[in-house]
């Protein structure tokens, strides 16, 4: 992480490389002059990268020009494999140039502006939820504005990290952050049924050891499963707080989070080529109509196997958020009920036999 950033070329020097951008060859490059912005990028260059609604410091590990035949993320054209500073390699991902910025004064100013806007929005939501707190007939703490509280809860878990206050430095601050991080993760501890734990192990073994794949599109999809769960909550007797108001909001939040997290953190390496093929077929391919692709989300293609992976990762994700204790408690209750629903309906939700892909797929996925 101590590699010095590559020096960015100024407008006059980048203009001279315009013709070079049109002759970029397939394969990994050491430098790239963008064919659209004429900005030069280098391997090992530090940069800024959009991830969700925020911007993070990152480093360019590889540069490639993807074609429809060899794309790894469903995107065509120049792509950059980035590593986010301070995050594990599992967060490394291929991104298009639209998501990266130069690590300069203008980029840092934009990063700070987005962080401040997000902090202001978070503070406003928390204040609104706190102002509406009341007691229900059982004496259990609730809120007269549960929609705002639960929206804040789920949205807070949809980004990779919380927002650090600018200027916070030092070992003491790091210890405090770790304590809060661990506290949130403990507060969000889920009751995962043993049957689902077995399914998770079987799922991992099928993909990583046996090199098999979940059938896509799945039936039922994540969207359909969440809709079935909503009906279950409405028609069953549960201890969930204010289900008539909160259920739809929680489900919407989980669906949005799944759509954002699927390609970034819910796939094993052997599945990434399948993901690229799915994006090409339904979203980015030349035969896809724009009006059709805008309605396609991963929650309408993937199913219970990947939804379960997301649910068990929620404690870690929430630990990296700015979620307050009340919101964590709300999400925890609903997710635990969702896990029980998955256990009861496991035979109709989870795939028993995975698909064995062709040899050519296996060679591509492992290369």
UniProtKB/TrEMBL annotation:
Transmembrane segments: none annotated. Residues 55-116 form the Chromo domain. Keywords: Chromatin regulator, Nucleus, Transcription, Transcription regulation. Residues 163-182 have a biased composition (Basic and acidic residues). GO terms for biological process: chromatin remodeling; regulation of DNA-templated transcription. Residues 1-22, 131-182 are annotated as: Disordered. One of its GO terms (cellular component) is NuA4 histone acetyltransferase complex. The keyword Nucleotide-binding does not apply. It is found in: Nucleus. Its main location: nucleus. Residues 139-158 have a biased composition (Low complexity). It holds the Pfam family MSL3_chromo-like. Belongs to the MRG family. This is Chromatin modification-related protein EAF3.
């Amino acid at each position: 992480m101590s590699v010095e950033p590559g020096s960015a070329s100024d407008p006059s020097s980048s203009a001279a490389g315009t013709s070079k951008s049109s002759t970029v060859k397939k394969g990994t490059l050491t430098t790239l002059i963008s064919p659209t912005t004429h900005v030069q990028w280098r391997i090992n260059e530090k940069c800024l990268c959009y991830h969700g609604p925020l911007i993070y410091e990152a480093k360019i590990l590889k540069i490639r020009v993807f074609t429809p035949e060899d794309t790894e993320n469903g995107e065509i054209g120049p792509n950059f494999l980035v590593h986010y500073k301070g995050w594990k390699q599992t967060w490394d991902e291929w991104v298009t140039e639209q998501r990266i910025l130069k690590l300069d004064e203008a980029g840092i100013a934009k990063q700070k502006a987005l962080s401040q806007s997000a902090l202001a929005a978070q503070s406003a939501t928390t204040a609104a939820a706190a102002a509406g707190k009341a007691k229900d007939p059982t004496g259990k703490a609730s809120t007269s504005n549960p929609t705002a509280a639960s929206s804040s809860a789920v949205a807070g878990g949809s980004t990779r990290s919380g927002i650090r206050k600018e200027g916070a430095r030092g070992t003491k601050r790091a210890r405090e952050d770790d304590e809060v991080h661990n506290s949130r993760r403990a507060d969000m501890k889920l009751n995962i049924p043993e049957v689902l734990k077995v399914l998770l192990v079987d799922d991992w073994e099928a993909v990583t050891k046996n090199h098999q794949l979940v059938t896509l599109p799945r039936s039922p999809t994540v969207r359909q499963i969440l809709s079935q769960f909503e009906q279950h909550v409405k028609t069953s007797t549960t201890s969930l707080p204010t289900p008539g108001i909160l259920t739809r909001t929680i489900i919407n939040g989980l669906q949005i989070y799944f759509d954002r997290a699927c390609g970034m953190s819910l796939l094993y390496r052997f599945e990434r080529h399948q993901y690229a093929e799915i994006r090409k077929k339904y979203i980015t391919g030349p035969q896809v109509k724009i009006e059709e692709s805008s309605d396609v989300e991963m929650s309408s293609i993937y199913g219970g196997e990947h939804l379960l992976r997301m649910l068990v990762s929620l404690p870690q994700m929430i630990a990296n958020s700015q979620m307050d204790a009340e919101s964590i408690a709300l999400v925890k209750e609903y997710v635990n009920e969702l896990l029980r629903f998955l256990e009861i309906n496991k035979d109709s939700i989870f795939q028993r036999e995975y698909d064995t892909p062709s040899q050519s797929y296996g060679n591509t996925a492992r290369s």
